Amino acid sequence: MTALVTGFPSCFLATRVVQRLLDDGQEVWAVVRRKSMEHAERLRAEMSPHERRRLRLLEGDSACIDLGLSGREFQMLTREVERIHHCAAVTYLRATRAAAERTNIGGAREVLELAEACRRLDRLVHWSTALVSGTRRGRVLEEDLGPGPGRNAVEETRRRAERIVREARDHVPVTILRPSIVVGDSQTGEIDRLEGPYLLVRLLLNAPPDLRIPMPGRGNTLLNMVPIDFVVDAGFALAAHPRSAGRTFHIVDPDPLPARRVFDLIAEKAQRPAPRGYVPTGMATALMRTPGLERLANIPRTLLEQLSADVVWDDRQARPILREAGVQCPPFEDYVGKMVAFVREQQERRRDPGALGVDELRFEDQDVSLD
Questions:
Q1: Sign (positive/negative) of CA torsion 215, 218, 220, 225?
Q2: Is 11 helix (H, G, I), strand (E, B) or coil?
Q3: CA dihedral 115, 119, 123, 126 (to 10 degrees)
Q4: Assign residue 358 a region: left if phi > 0, alpha if psi is -120 to 50, beta otherwise?
Q5: Is residue 66 part of a domain?
Q6: At 155, which CATH number?
Q7: Residue 158 shares a structural domain with residue 206
Q8: How far apart are CA 87 and CA 128, in angstroms?
Q9: Same domain, 100 and 161
Q10: Helix, strand, coil: what percent of the chain each, to 5?
Q11: Same domain for 113 and 191?
């Protein structure tokens, strides 16, 4: 099978998808933005000769007309491509609305046009996110995609992008995948950016050893996280299923832990005291100004909202397919130590004892890619 992937290599998910396709012996075309081409070439050079021959890079942009490709390149893809993995997306929760609309909504439209033109298309796999549920509370089914607002431009534009793709299901074989909060590899802890739950890891690693940091929020809501290796394994199993065309699937941890238990486990692996008490989520940023606690104020409000979001992403459609394929989400207890070790190693490499300061957060702002 010949596959096309968007988002490589800037998107961590896209990089893992490309590697999985190569591991499966498939031919891969990757649309790569000009500013990322050097990085893509470097990753390709590190692969085996057999993999290098099967990975071909096209300079383009998934959010541009015809993916920013020449007419000849676009037509070639319509003849050869059998499966599309659309991974390119703005995921950084503090990205601008303009950037999110361009990549998330514009990219969905352009990829869909390619899919409609492909003569041999077996499947368009649209990698979305469970966070399209936005401000919803309670149980959210896999087919639910209400008009409610997102908590930020990223969630809102990804919801609108998913709607664009869903509306084409009557004439394009589409499978939509919605992972919950994605964390690093369950075996290595590797992740491309230290954000989301990794901010909690950094917070505890850099807190004074004897300081008990209060929970941001009561900590009794479930925090559903999934490691990237499980996400890819589950996504491929779902997309390959003969009855998955036209359907949407949540990729979630079936047994998520309460946020407080997550915090306790991170503290244990970081060799720090467990949290004591809590600060109401809406007041956390304002109150955490005392010495030793000011770092909590640097945690983005979007993460604080996730810690208090009382939502359950129902996976009743995905569950039997994954069970049949033998794909299981590892429990958080099994890989939290890998997450903490990875963050500790990255901080030691930077040799920065105050790793949660504003300067480092700015560094991450500059390092984020829009695809």
A1: negative
A2: coil
A3: -10
A4: alpha
A5: yes
A6: 3.40.50.720
A7: no
A8: 8
A9: yes
A10: 45, 15, 40
A11: no
Strands 123-127 and 247-251: unpaired
Tokens of 341: 């070790």
The number of distinct structural domains making up the chain is: 2
Q: What contacts 168, CB < 8 A, 6 or more positions away?
A: 112, 115, 116, 174
Q: Confirm if 285 and 301 have CB atoms less than 8 A apart.
A: yes
Q: Which two tokens stand for residue 307?
A: 């810690």
Do 195 and 340 fall into the same domain?
yes
Q: Which two tokens stand for residue 365?
A: 């702002």
Contact predicate 8/15, CB 8 Å: yes
Contacts of 264 (CB under 8 A, 6+ apart): 274, 275
| Same domain, residue pair 153 and 95 | yes
Q: Are residues 103 and 197 in the same domain?
A: no
- Give the list of residues 6+ apart from residue 276 with CB closer than 8 angstroms, or none: 212, 213, 214
Query: Is the backbone of residue 292 left (phi > 0), alpha (psi -120 to 50) or beta?
Result: left
CA 321 to each of CA 241, 250, 251, 326: distance values in angstroms, whole numbers, following the listed order: 7, 12, 11, 9
Same domain, yes or no: 117 and 213: no
The tens-digit pLDDT sequence of the chain (371 residues) is: 999 999 999 999 999 999 999 999 999 999 999 999 999 999 999 999 999 999 999 999 999 999 999 999 999 999 999 999 999 999 887 789 999 999 999 999 999 999 999 999 999 999 999 999 988 889 999 999 876 667 789 999 999 999 999 999 999 999 999 999 999 999 999 998 887 788 888 878 887 777 777 776 677 889 999 999 999 999 999 999 989 999 999 999 999 999 889 989 999 999 988 877 766 655 554 444 444 454 555 555 666 666 667 899 999 999 999 999 999 999 999 999 999 999 999 888 876 544 444 333 332 333 333 34
* Nearest of 195, 183, 252, 198 to residue 224 by alpha carbon: 252
3-class state of residue 165 by DSSP: helix
Same domain, 213 and 288: yes
DSSP letter assigned to residue 104: I
pTM equals 0.89
Q: Which domain holds residue 87?
A: 2-179
